[in-house]
Amino acid sequence: MDRLVNTVRPYAWGSPTALPELLGQEPTGEPQAELWMGAHPGDPSRADRGDGPRRLDELIAADPEGELGAAAVARFGPTLPFLFKVLAAGTALSIQAHPTLDQARAGFAAENALGIPLDAPERSYRDANHKPEMVCALGEFEGLCGFRRPAEAARVLAGLAVPGLDPLIGLLAAEDETEALRTTLAAILTMDGPTAERTVRETAEVLAERDGLDPDGVYAPYARIAKDFPADRGLIAALLLNHVRLRAGEALYLGAGVPHAYLSGVCVELQANSDNVLRAGLTPKHVDLPELLKVVVFEAGAPDVLHPAPVEGTPGEELYPVPIDEFRLSRFTLDGREREIDGRTPQILLCTAGTARLTSADGTTLDLARGQSAFLPATGAPTRLAGTGTTLFRATVTV
To answer: In the annotation, is 339 catalytic?
Structure first.
């Protein structure tokens, strides 16, 4: 077992207080957005096995089968196939979507062929992997997820009575829902500069008025976005998306192509080991419209909120089901009784409440306080878990 030393990424949208509070640290006054746990080369965790801290990706590369197990290496290759995070949103993240595996491979190869540096701001593909993801709320968590039905989106836009939105309302009336959503999003992102500036400004002003009259109504989350992004055309794109509010323990799974943006709150996030993002607004970063329109899946419908289900054969474990094998997220609520997990797959354990004691087959123990995490190599031997009033999230794979 390895206690992990993890990196916090200070993106501008992060909360200045949520991650310090989880980690038991003093706030710096600066936004702290994401705590990364895993072996992504962008910010790998570190572990000390007696000779000083070493990068987890380097430890895995030195002995892939010893760290990940032969079955995981055969299935996913010699790298940890998932990236585990704690995400703390103080303001909205960019509206974004992620590619399929084939799209990621093709896009990464194409940008490499063009000689675009990996850290270039105009780069869309920073690796050749897809990025399905799951978020599980640690408290109240808000986001946007998937498209509204075009008729519903048209009603939301019409309710603002902003003249510049009328052409978009007309596009949403197209008989084919996919085409209606595609052409409307493209029209928002290609609207000429002066028209976009005027329409976004007037939309932001009306949203502020609506929020004052009905602070809990349908426009409330978009009014908050408008305060932070009063000149970003992504504000209009956001109105096409479903607003969703999660309670603690509820989760969302987002497959390839699903447009989304997280708005506020703290969650654990588990995803395939990738950093590929196609953006559609609410950001000063690059928006690659042609590639975005290739990646986004223009399907309407309300998002499915997931609840965990007990795992047969593992008392105390509750699983959040997903349709892929690169990651598996479950949760233990420890009540004083010892629990056991198998060691056939690589896993990261994260404590989000109380204190957990991990005991390996040879009797070695490791205590995890709130906000701490551990990497368990795939030794094949079980690990025992103990704690009272403890919540422990388990990230692993299915093989």
So the answer is: no
